[in-house]
Amino acid sequence: MGKAKKVGARRKTSGAPAGARGGPAKANSNPFEVKVNRQKFQILGRKTRHDVGLPGVSRARALRKRTQTLLKEYKERDKSNVFRDKRFGEYNSSMSPEEKMMKRFALEQQRHHEKKSIYNLNEDEELTHYGQSLADIEKHNDIVDSDSDAEDRGALSAELTAAHFGGGGGLLHEKTQQEDEEQGKAKSRKELIEELIAKSKQEKRERQAQREDALELTEKLDQDWKEIQTLLSHKTPKSENRDKKEKPKAERLRRMLGKDEDENVKKPKHISADDLNDGFVLDKDDRRLLSYKDGKMNVEEDGQEEQSKEASDPESNEEEGDSSGREDTEESDSPDSHSDLESNVESEEENEKPAKEQRQTPGRGPTSGKGRAGKAAGDELPYTFAAPESYEELRSLLLGRSMEEQLLVVERIQKCNHPSLAEGNKAKLEKLFGFLLEYVGDLATDDPPDLRVIDKLVVHLYNLCQMFPESASDAVKFVLRDAMHEMEEMIETKGRATLPGLDVLIYLKITRLLFPTSDFWHPVVTPALVCLSQLLTKCPVLSLQDVVKGLFVCCLFLEYVALSQRFIPELINFLLGILYIATPNKASQGSTLVHPFRALGKNSELLVVSDREDVATWQQSSLSLRWASGLRAPTSTEANHIRLSCLAVGLALLKHCVPMYGSLPSFHAIMGPLRALLTDHLADCSHPQELQELCQSTLTEMESQKQLCRPLTCEKSKPVPLKLFTPRLVKVLEFGRKQGSSKEEQERKRLIHKHKREFKGAVREIRKDNQFLARMQLSEIMERDAERKRKVKQLFNSLATQEGEWKALKRKKFKK
Asked: What does it do (predicted)?
C-alpha cells in the first residue's frame, strides 16, 4: 500500500506542474527530451518558472549562437584588418567641437611642416651656384644681351686661370706685388684665390642685373607700343573712311548700269617665295606679274597695278562683311538660338523677301543669298556706332534695315562702347538693354510680328544681362509692373480684363531665357510667375485669340517650372476649361468650372467643331502665334482648324503635366475631373484620329501613376472600459532568517545573492565556451591528420604503381 501511495503521489506531483505550465510543451514532443525538475515540497503561493525544461533545444540554441559569434572570432584571430578611428578627441566627451577642430587643424599644419624624410637634412635650404639658385639655373632663362657677353660666357678670367693652373706665379705675382708693398705684408695663396672668386661673383651679379634691367625696359616698350597700336586702330583718317564709303557706292552703281565686269577684275597679287609673311610691305613694288595670253607674254602696265592696289581695299571690306555674315549664320544655326519663338509667319516673310530685295536693288536678282547680303551690310554700315541716348535714336538706326544689318549694328554698338574702353560706357550699355527691350515690344506689335529678328536679338539681350544683371532685372521688372498696372486699371474701369498683346507674352518668354527659373524665390522670376497666374485667372476667355494666348501662357508656365516642378493650380484649371469648351454642353460634365470659364453661355462651346469636312481636312501642326496678334480675322475653315489645333495643344500640355505631377500625393484627386472629361465626353466626340490617339495615351499615363495616399476615414471609437476599484496592496513580511533586518540590509543581501548567481552563470558559460573551442580545435586537427593520411596514401599508391611498371619492364628485358 505504501509503495502504491508513493507512486500515486509521484504521478500527481509530476502531472501538476505540467498542467500548470499548460502551453509551452508541444503535444507531439518527444518525452525523452523533456526534463522535469522535481521539487521536494510544494509551497502554496510560490510560482515555479523552471519546472519543465527542454535541454536539447536549449543546447542547440547555445551551439548556434556560439557558432555565429565565438567561432567567427576564433577563425579571425590571426587577422589584423581592424578599423580604428584615430581622429583626435572623437570619443572625448570633455572637449567641445570647437576645441577638437582647432586641435585637428594644428596637428594637420604641423604634419605639413614636418620633414618628409629624416635623411634629407638640407630640405629647407636652397642650393646656389655663383650667387644664383640652382632651380633658376635649370629653367635656362638667361638672356644674351650682346655678342661680347656670349663670347665671354663659359671662359675663365686670366686671374683665375693663373691662380689655379699657373702654380701661383706669373700674373698672380705681378698683380699682388704692388698690394703687398702697400699693405706691408704678403697675402697667402688661399686669400688671393678667395678674393678672385669674390670678384668673379660680383661681376656675374652685375651682368645679371644689367640683363634684368634691359628685359624690364623691353617689356615696358612693348606695352607702350601695344597701347599706341590700339589707339591707331580705333582712329582711322577721314579720307580713308570717305574712300571706303564711296567705293562700294561706285561698285553698286556699276552693277546697276550693267557695265562690263572685266574692266575692274581683281588682278592676282604677286607674292614672293621668300616672303616671311611678317607684315612688312614695301612702299612701291616694281615687280610685275608674268602671265601669258594667246600664247604671248602679257606684261601689266604700271597704271593697272595701282588700280589693283586701290581695289584691294573694298575687297578687304567685303571679306570682313563675309566673316560677319558667316558668324551670324553660325549663331542662327546654334542650338541656343531660341527658335521656339518662330512661327508660321517665317514662311510668309521668306516669300516676301525676294520682292523686297528686288525693290531695294533692281540690279540684283531674287537669287542673291545671305552671304551677298552680309557683304553689302558690311560695306554700307560704318564700323563705329555711338551708343544711343534715347529709344528714338536706336529705332532710327535699326528701322528699315535687314535682319543681318540690325544684328550687326547692335553688335558693333556693344563692341565700340565696351566698359573696358571708357569710363561712361557701362551706363550707356545699361540704357541699351532697356532700349532693345522696348524695340522687341515694337517688333512684336508689328503687322506681321517680326519674330525672327526678336529671336536673334535675345542673344544680345542675354549678353547684356550677364554683364549688367541689376540694371537688366530693373528693366524687366519695370515692363512687367507696367503690364500689371494696365490690367488692374482695365479691371477697375470695365470690370474685366483681356489678355495682353503679343509684346507682353514675349517679354515673359524672354524673362525665362534671361534669368534662372529654378530658384525658390527670385526678384524677377517670382513676379513673372505671379503675372502669369493673374493672366490665367482674371482674364476671361471670349474668343479664339484668347484661347491661343492662354495656351501660350500655359506653355510658358511649364517652361518656368520644368526644373523646380512646382504645382500650378491655375495651369490645371485652364487646361480643364479648354477641354470643357471643346465638348458639347450636357446635363452633367462631372466637373465644376471656375473663372475665367463659364459652364453655360455664349462661349461655353468655343472649341466645338461641327463641320465634318473641316475635321477631315485638318492636319496636326504647330499652333501659329500670328493668330494671337488678332490682326487678321480667320475664315470659317481656318477657325475650325485653329479649334482643333488648340485642343491638340491642350492635350499635349496635359500629357506633359502627368509625369511632372505624378509624384504628388493628391495627383489622382487633382486629375479626377480631367479624367472624367477625357473618358466620358471627348472619346465619344467625332474628333480626328490623331486627337483620339493623344487622348487615349494621356488616359493611360494617368492610370499608370501609383496611388501615393490613402483616403481619410473616421477613426473608430474605442469601447469605454468599466469602472474598476483599485486593489489594496498589503506588504507581507517573510518570516525566518530575514526577519528583523532593515531595508538597506535586505537590499544588500539581495544584491550579494544576485552577484553570486550571475558569477556562477558566467563561470558556467566560460566553461562551455572553452569546451566548444576545444571541440573546434580537435576537429581541425582531425581534418589535417585525415588530409595528411590521404596524401601519404596517394603517394604510396603512385610509388607502388611506378615500381610495378619498372619491374614489368625489367622482366621484359630479361626475356629478350
From this structure: Involved in nucleolar processing of pre-18S ribosomal RNA. Has a role in the nuclear export of 40S pre-ribosomal subunit to the cytoplasm.
- Structural domain including 558 reads 540-709
Residue 658 lies in a domain: yes
Phi and psi for 191 in degrees, rounded to 5? -65, -40
Q: Which residues, in sequence order, are bridge partners of residue 297? A: 292
User: Is residue 118 domain-resident?
Assistant: no
Q: Are residues 481 and 569 in the same domain?
A: no
* Higher-pLDDT residue of 232, 527: 527
> Is residue 15 very low, low, confident or very high in pLDDT (cuts 50, 70, 90)?
very low
Of the three residues 462, 493, 524, the one that is the final residue of a domain is 493
Characterise 277 by phi-psi region: left (phi > 0), alpha (psi -120 to 50), beta (else). Answer: left
Residue 581 sits in the same domain as residue 686: yes
Grid coordinates given for 562? 520644368
Q: What is the pLDDT of residues 646-701, one digit of tens each?
A: 989 999 999 999 999 998 988 988 998 888 888 876 666 677 888 888 888 999 99
Would you list the DSSP string of 354-411?
Answer: HHHHHHH-TTS-TT--HHHHHHHHHHHS-S--PPPSSHHHHHHHHTT--HHHHHHHHH
Q: Are residues 545 and 662 in the same domain?
A: yes
DSSP string, 538-575: HS---SHHHHHHHHHHHHHHHHHTTTT----HHHHHHH
For the segment 223-235, the average pLDDT, to the nearest whole number, is 77
Beta strands in 258-355 (DSSP E): 291-293, 296-298
Q: Dump pLDDT digits (tens) for 104-137.
A: 999 888 887 765 655 655 555 566 777 677 767 7
Question: Is-contact 537 632, C-beta < 8 A?
Answer: no
How many other β-carbons are positioned within 10 Å of the β-carbon of residue 343? 19
One domain, residues 703 and 572: yes
Residue 584 one-letter amino acid: P
- Identify whether residues 473 and 587 lie together within a single domain: no
3-class DSSP state for residue 52? Answer: strand
Q: What are the φ and ψ backbone dihedral angles of 130, each rounded to 5 degrees? A: 55, 40
Say which amino acid occupies 55: P
> How far apart, in whole angstroms, are the C-alpha atoms of residue 732 and residue 62?
39
Q: Is the pLDDT of residue 782 over 70?
A: yes
Is there a single domain that holds both residue 484 and residue 552? no
- Retrieve residue 497's grid coordinates: 480684363
Rounded CA-CA distance 594/586 in Å is 17
Question: Which tops the pLDDT comparison, 296 or 539?
Answer: 539
In the chain, what is the straight-line distance between the N-terminal and C-terminal CA atoms, in Å?
Answer: 99
In this structure, the answer to whether residues 467 and 555 fall within a common structural domain is no
In contact, 582 and 677? CB cutoff 8 Å: no
In terms of DSSP bridges, do strands 132-133 and 296-298 run parallel, antiparallel, or are they unpaired?
unpaired
In 397-410, which positions are buried (b, 16+ CB within 10 angstroms) versus exposed (e)? bbeebbbbbbbbbb
Gyration radius of the chain's alpha carbons: 51
Our count of domains for the chain comes to 2
> Quick one: 466 and 575 in the same domain?
no
Q: Where does a domain end: 461, 493, 525?
A: 493
User: Is position 676 within any domain?
Assistant: yes
Q: Extract the runs of DSSP E, i.e. beta strands, from 581-729.
A: none
